[in-house]
Design brief:
- It is a single chain.
- The chain has 285 residues and is of the alpha+beta class.
- It has 3 domains: 61 residues, no CATH class; 86 residues, Immunoglobulins (Immunoglobulin-like), CATH 2.60.40.10; 104 residues, Sandwich (Immunoglobulin-like).
- It has 4 helices and 16 strands.
- Strands 11, 12, 14, 15 and 16 form a 5-stranded antiparallel sheet that branches. A 3-stranded antiparallel sheet has the order 2-6-5, with no helix packed on it.
């Protein structure tokens, strides 16, 4: 163990400060735990200096722990962090409702959080359904012109300097006003072709519905095998419409044509289906 040699003036200053006695007592307990035993030729001030070094080492270790785990060391308050997140600008609503062609559509965007008025809204990328627009005040409105799923990004900026800007991705699903599906696919039974479809009204309006089914022969001649005309009320889901007729021997392609009209809005919805393959009637004249 090297000897610490210090001046009498430095030792006297430490003694006068009252620090030597405290540190010397600490060293008597700490040194054996460090594996340091026996007689040490150290002046009193050397012991004081060594004690300071030990205290400094403990302080450095505590500081490193504080850097690695600031929450335990009191470097961050959870409530303050949560408050910062709550002040951020957030676009609402989270999702947009669907619609149908020619249906009136109206949604107002708004923002939650801290911002400087006035907010300005734009479409940053993607495409709105044709017929629907977003104005500067955040109003999304209009009437979709066709079915499909449309994806786009809405951007809002506030009036601050510098401006705060936030964006969010949205989609609008535009479904067909009339939905038609096979319930019982067209098929041959003896000399007949029969089948049925399901019709749904996805709009918010009652409509006049025309249901027409034709069997077109190989020579181009069309035969009516199903026809109905009636009011189809809004919200109707899966109404069954049967068709069928006896036909002469030959091959036929089946076409189902459904047309709905909403006169007060001058809106017409059409759906055309074709049987996947020609049907052969082998029994009959």
């Amino acid at each position: 163990m090297p000897l610490f040699v210090v001046s009498e003036r430095a030792e006297m200053a430490a003694r006068n400060s009252g620090s030597l006695d405290c540190v010397s007592a600490s060293l008597r307990e700490a040194l054996p735990s460090l594996g340091m035993t026996g007689d040490f030729k150290m002046t009193k001030f050397a012991k004081f200096a060594l004690g300071c070094a030990l205290v400094a080492g403990i302080g450095a270790a505590w500081g490193q722990a504080a850097v690695q785990n600031p929450q335990k060391a009191g470097a961050q308050k959870p409530d303050a962090a949560a408050g910062d997140q709550g002040s951020r600008l957030v676009i609402e609503p989270l999702e947009l409702p669907g619609t149908y062609p020619h249906g009136n559509y109206q949604v107002n965007f708004h923002a939650r959080g801290n911002y400087v008025p006035v907010l300005h809204w734009t479409v940053g990328s993607g495409a709105l359904p044709p017929g629907i627009t977003l104005d500067d005040g955040g109003s999304l409105h209009g009437e979709a012109q066709r079915a499909g799923e449309f994806q786009f990004v809405v951007v809002v900026k506030d009036g601050g300097q510098p401006q705060q800007a936030v964006q969010k991705a949205f989609s609008i699903k535009v479904v067909e006003g009339i939905q038609v599906a096979w319930k019982v696919p067209a098929h041959v039974t003896g000399s007949r072709i029969d089948g049925s479809v399901e019709v749904s009204n996805a709009t918010a309006d009652d409509m006049d519905l025309t249901f027409d089914v034709k069997a077109v022969a190989e020579n181009g001649r069309a035969t009516e095998i199903g026809y109905q005309h009636f009011p189809l009320t809004k919200g109707t889901i899966g109404m069954a419409l049967p068709f069928g007729e006896t036909l002469p021997h030959g091959g036929y392609t089946i076409y189902v044509n459904v047309v709905g009209e909403v006169a007060k809005r001058n809106a017409i919805y059409k759906q055309l289906m074709q049987a996947p393959a020609a049907l052969q009637v082998v029994v009959g004249p």
